[in-house]
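re: ur msg from earlier - yeah i can do the heme C complex, just paste it... oh wait u already did. ok heres what im feeding in:
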Amino acid sequence: MRSRAALAAVVLGVFAVGAAHAEVDPQLCFACHGPNGNSANPAVPSLAGQPAQFITTQLIMFREKRRTDPLMSPIAAPLTNPEISALGKFFAGQQHAAPAKKPAENVLAAGRKLAEDYNCVVCHGAALKGQQHIPRLAGQQVEYLRTQLRGFMAGTRFDMDGNMTSAAQRLKPADVDLLAEYISGLE
Ligand code: HEC
Ligand code: HEC
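and the outut:
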C-alpha cells in the first residue's frame, strides 16, 4: 500500500476535481478496496455488490465520526451527500468477484449451521448477500470479518440500530473463526 502522505496527496487532488464536478472518481477507492471494489487485502473490505444503502450509511457514519478508522475516516470526511449517493450506486453495481478459496466440506456444513442457529441468515439474507442497510457478507475478506465480529462483541464497532451488537453477544471466540472462514469462502 502507498504511504499515508502519498495517498493524502492523491485524495486531495481527486477531491479538488470532484468538488468542481460534484462527483468523486471511484478509482480513488480502488487504491485500498481493490479494482472495482474487489479487495485483495484480507484486512480491507470489498465494496463490490454491497447494497447501495449499506455503503451510503457507512460513509455517512464515517463522515459523522460515529465509525472511525485511521485510513477510512479522512477519505469520508469531505464527502457531500450527492457524492456519497453516487459512490453507493457505483459500488452496488459492480460485480463481486468469486473468492479465491472455497471452504472445505466440513467448514461449509458447520458454518452453515452456525449462520442458521445464530439467525445471521434472517437479517443478512439466505445467501448472506445483504439487503438495504444490512451488509453483504458472502465473499468478504476473512480478517476483516473477524475484526468486525470481535468489534461488535466488544462494543467497539459502531452499530446504528444495536441489532448487530446484540446478535454478536452470544458468539463464542471459536464461532467467530469458523463463521469468518465459512462466510469469506461463499460466492
Ligand atoms: C487509504 C485506504 C482507503 C481508501 C483510499 C478508501 N478506503 Fe474505504 N475503508 C478503508 C478501510 C481500512 C476500511 C475498514 C475500516 C474498518 O476496519 O472499520 C474501509 C471501510 C470502508 C467502508 C465500510 C465497508 C464495510 O463493509 O463496512 C466503505 C463503505 C468504504 N470504506 C468506502 C470507501 C469509498 C467509497 C472510498 C473512495 C471514495 C474509500 N472507501 C477509500 C480504507 C480505505
Ligand atoms: C437482527 C439482524 C442481524 C442479525 C441477526 C445479524 N446481523 Fe450482522 N449486521 C446487521 C446490521 C444491521 C449490520 C450493520 C450494522 C451497522 O454498521 O450499523 C450488520 C453488520 C455485520 C457485519 C459487518 C460487515 C461489514 O461489512 O462491515 C458483520 C461481519 C456481520 N454483521 C456478521 C453477522 C453474523 C456472522 C451474524 C450471525 C452470527 C449476524 N451478522 C447476525 C444485522 C444483523
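cool cool. The pocket of heme C (ligand 1) is lined by residues 7, 24, 28-29, 31-33, 44-45, 47, 55, 58-59, 69, 71-72, 75, 87, 135 (CB under 6 Å). ping me if u need the other ligands too
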